[in-house]
Design goal:
With 197 residues, the chain is of the alpha+beta class. It has one domain. Helix content is 34%, strand content 31%. The longest helix is centred in the N-terminal third of the chain and has 17 residues. The radius of gyration is 17 Å and the shape is globular.
């Protein structure tokens, strides 16, 4: 299965929370440089270096105290990263989301091949997590178009959705050869999710 996230959306930059945009960009740079097939620990170390290079503040595998109804639990959570003291980054989150969507677990079909999928963030659940918009044929093509913190915005505007539908038509209309070329030239980034960790 191919997972891709387009990186050529300068016209839609206003849609992205700048911190999230920078974090995703750093992760894409790591995948662009290393490709697929390594253990998660390799990507973890490479992403640490990329965060430093790009000046993104982060903590690697910190212990996070979780509270339930205002009281701390005895158990803690250890995410891959916490960036900007607020954004939890899990290296495997996108692959898990696609597996759920393949099983029909989407939050909304927005039409034109665009679906909405909420991602749970550890300790916050899906309501406190992130929203993603995905272009898909619900078969072998899944393109992550846009992500946003649910606490930062509830949804996208009708104008933004129209723009994403145009992009979706273009992506889903590409041949396998065109997709491979887009990955080679860097206009699309393939994200592998089937590595063993």
């Amino acid at each position: 299965m191919r997972l891709s996230w387009s990186t050529d959306y300068a016209d839609y930059a206003e849609m992205k929370d700048q911190r999230t945009y920078m974090i995703i960009g750093a992760a894409l740079e790591v995948h662009r440089e290393l490709g697929c097939g390594f253990l998660e620990a390799i990507y973890q170390e490479a992403l640490e270096r990329e965060f430093v290079e790009q000046g993104i503040p982060f903590k690697s595998q910190p212990m996070v105290q979780i509270a339930y109804k205002g009281k701390p639990l005895n158990k803690t959570y250890q995410p891959d990263f916490v960036c900007h003291d607020a954004v939890i980054v899990e290296i495997k989150a996108l692959g898990k989301a696609v597996k759920e969507m393949e099983q029909g677990l989407i939050d909304a079909n927005l039409g034109g091949g665009v679906v909405k999928k909420r991602l749970a963030l550890p300790g916050r659940g899906k309501r406190g997590g992130a929203g993603t918009l995905v272009a898909t044929n619900k078969g072998d093509r899944w393109f992550f178009l846009f992500g946003f913190g649910k606490n930062e915005r509830a949804n996208i505007t009708a104008e933004e959705l129209d723009g994403l539908r145009v992009i979706t038509r273009q992506l889903l209309g590409m041949t396998s050869e065109q997709l491979n070329e887009a990955v080679r030239d860097g206009s699309l980034q393939e994200i592998c999710h089937d590595r063993k960790s």
